[in-house]
Amino acid sequence: MKIGLFIPCFMNELYPDVCMATLKILKKLNLEIDYPMSQTCCGQPMANSGCSKDIETLAKQFVETFKDYDYIVAPSGSCVTMVKEHYAPFFKNNSDYNKVKTSIYEVCEFLHDIIKIEYLDVSFPYKVGIHNSCHGHRMLKLGTPSELNIPYNSKLKNLLSLVKDIEIVTLQREDECCGFGGTFSVTEEDISVAMGKDRIKDHIDSQAQVITGADMSCLMHMDGIINRNKENIKVMHIVEILAGAKYE
Question: Is the pTM of this model over 0.90?
Fold first, then answer.
């Protein structure tokens, strides 16, 4: 099993510790990991802004880069969704894209559904609230959307339950949007910030010490609001916790 590690461009630049935690947890499972140096942006910012010509260029670059791997794994639900759901118009029943589309996984989805890990030798003795990002939650089905009114399940929660000493808090709104939405946070700044504040308040009211999730973009948005307002709560990507990172 050969895995191509896809690291979103903004994470590569701004959150190298999360990228390394992703690599660490995959390597601890004795998986063969490769990081292709020709990879670049998945095109999601361009898609948000209507730049379809630029998306096509990036989509074809992505498929060419990752087509030969058994699996493609990334620490970002929204970027994985971009590849799975929004590349099709640029490929007419292309076998390489069809393979990539069915081989790409968000890292929690991969650990939960493909590797099916049952044990983690890590401890995290803190109260943690799970932020279920919209793309991962609804498009990748990392959790059960509340509007379906069916028994709740969360792959993120299932993975975190393997961590020793952790306490997962119950939120009032398990799957509410944080308001980031990519370029939405720029074009509709006031609404985006208001939604982010509501999301953070839910975690604080639930006495969480840490907000975690599978999309660093959402966590980045909330972290900015937290720092600006000097709130007493921290954000950490879920792979950092699963890989044994310390609370600092």
Answer: yes
